[in-house]
Amino acid sequence: MSEKTIERPTTDEAALAKEIEAEEKVAARQASLLKDGWADLRKRPMFIVTGLVILCLLALAIAPSLFTSRSPFSDGFCQLQNSMSGPTSGHLFGFDVQGCDIYTRAVYGTRNSIVVGVVTTIATTLIGGLVGMLAGLIGGWADALLSRITEVFAGLPLLIGGLLIMSVWGGGDVWSVSFIMAILGWPQVFRIMRGEVIANKYNDYVMAARALGASSWRIAFRHILPNTLAPVIVITTMNLGVYIGAEAALSYLGIGIQYPNISWGVMISDAQDRFLTSPHALLFPAGALSITVLAFIMLGDVVRDAFDPKMR
After folding, report:
1. Which residues contact 175 (CB under 8 A, 6 or more apart)?
2. Are 104 and 71 in contact (CB under 8 A)?
3. What is the gyration radius of the CA atoms in the chain, in angstroms?
4. I need a surface site. Which of 22, 86, 92, 172 has the fewest CB within 10 A?
């Protein structure tokens, strides 16, 4: 009587199947978190309002010529006989001290503010995220060393540190301001990423992947990183508004973006001494700055509420 042969999976095949199953569970969990967060965002009126405002700001930054037929860099744009004149037909915001159209300058100033915010946010996220992940994964002396280095940079507040460095280094353009603010801003992302990595690296699915022989890089990018993105996304969204405000403050003090580049901070600085006699020269760039910063900070609040399960 012949016996029926039963094929059993080998040890390697069973381990591979378990690893695949673990990865599928992690992917499903992350997809569910993102899907639920996005679904919650779409139901919030504040997300729609801030999203529309930010889209308008991005349009101003990308194509300012669509919103004004004038160019602040053209010959004859500034006429001294129009100095500090109020709003008139064709000049909605009036003129500044040099006789330049404030509306056109405010529109073109949007680009520099948005670029500084975006470039600085990307740089701080990449630097802080990478260093924070390394510190959290490696631990031990490497974690201690990286944490002490981070504390050195974190000890300098953004504005005070910017004042100190730019007074020596020198500002003047978008890239130098973005570079210096990125140097001072990455410790915040570092602390968040490090804490999230430490909290997640001992979870069951990570331990299972490690037991099955997955490499450290595979564990870091396939298992740990996807589960640390939500808080990083929240803080980077809010930081956009913070960096735009910081750039305006540094430019207002005369060490950020400087002439011939256009900045809302420079426009506010030029108009402050004549506020009582010509308030329009200060109110319009200050209003544009306030709306921009408020829009990004409120967007960050909404994203935090949507992606944090504890806030629902």
Report:
1. 119
2. yes
3. 26
4. 86
Q: How confident is the model at residue 28 (pLDDT cuts 50, 70, 90)?
A: low
Report the SS3 class of residue 245: helix
Q: Round to whole Å and give the CA distance between 53 and 47.
A: 10
Beta strands, E only, 34-182: none
Q: 0.70 exceeded by the pTM?
A: yes
For 195-219, write each residue's pLDDT tens digit.
989 988 887 777 777 777 777 778 8
Q: How far is CA 137 from CA 29, 122, 212, 233, in A?
A: 21, 22, 18, 20
Q: What is the DSSP letter of 88?
A: B
- For helices 45-62 and 102-138, what crossing angle results, to 10°? 110
- What residue spans define the domains of the chain? 22-65+93-311
Those residues whose C-beta lies under 8 Å from the C-beta of residue 244, and which sit 6 or more positions away, are 113, 114, 116, 117, 289, 292, 293, 296
Stretch 230-259: mean pLDDT, rounded? Answer: 88
Residue 109: name the closest of 251, 214, 5, 228 by CA: 251
Tokens 């381990």 sit at which residue? Answer: 15
DSSP state of 224: I
Cβ contact 137:216 at 8 Å: yes
CA dist 130 and 225 (Å) reads: 10
User: What is the rounded distance in angstroms from the CA atom of residue 74 to the CA atom of residue 65?
Assistant: 13
- Give the amino acid at 269: S
User: Assign residue 64 a region: left if phi > 0, alpha if psi is -120 to 50, beta otherwise?
Assistant: alpha
SS3 78: coil
Q: What is d(CA 57, CA 45) in angstroms, rounded to the nearest whole number?
A: 19
The domain defined by 22-65+93-311 folds into MetI-like fold (1.10.3720)
End-to-end alpha carbon distance in the chain: 66
